[in-house]
User: What shape does this take?
Amino acid sequence: MPTLTVNGRSVTVASDATILDAARAAGVEVPTLCHFDGLEPWGGCRLCVVDMSQANWDDDWFKVVTACNHPVKEGMTVVTDSERIIETRRVVLDLLLARCPDTPLVQRWAREYGIEKTSYTPNPEPDDCILCGLCTRVCDHIGVSAIASVNRGWGREIAPPFNQPPPDCIGCLACAEICPTDCIPYETSNSRRQIWGKEFEMLRDPETGEAVITKEQSEHFAKRTGVPMSYFETSDRSKRREMAKTFEKLSVFDSGARQ
Assistant: This one.
């Protein structure tokens, strides 16, 4: 396992760790907007940039890399708060603030780096999407790929094909739940769900009547995992109740066997 230093703190991490993993192990906070531990690193937001130097480099030679997807090596030196790193993050946040001037998450991070107002031309049509790509990546991760990044410049956005209700969407809400700025709208009730302009029928637990998941979601995961659809139609509450009954039977059986 490689040992490296992060802001002067020595830390040993797994051989497949990233610089971000090492920083966390050393107790050093590195800001990120597009990283999620359950997804492959992307390095898209550029907020996690750090200065890095390999063991065989000159002492004063450092390279700017993204911490979330750069692998660690034995003897590596990482600096997360150098002057040029702080300035690079300020530029990133300044640009984000120009795109999303009314977004609380962006405003908070900008203030952390001393920015109250963007120095760039503000987006004439501001929204809360920071283009972190988490929504499209989680959609790809579960094997749906119903949405994607489209257009360029100010017009770049996350959208379904041709801005029409996406035929592949299963209504799982993973995109909305993972969004750090809560900018993907949806409506859900005990019978219907609506997201990306597409309507879904909710499957309800046969015992309690509570909505569990959409019919399309159940079909998708049953096909992908081989697990019967009835499993996905059962609520967590009903599953726990059945498990408790099973444990109760096992307990009675075990008591009888000891007598």
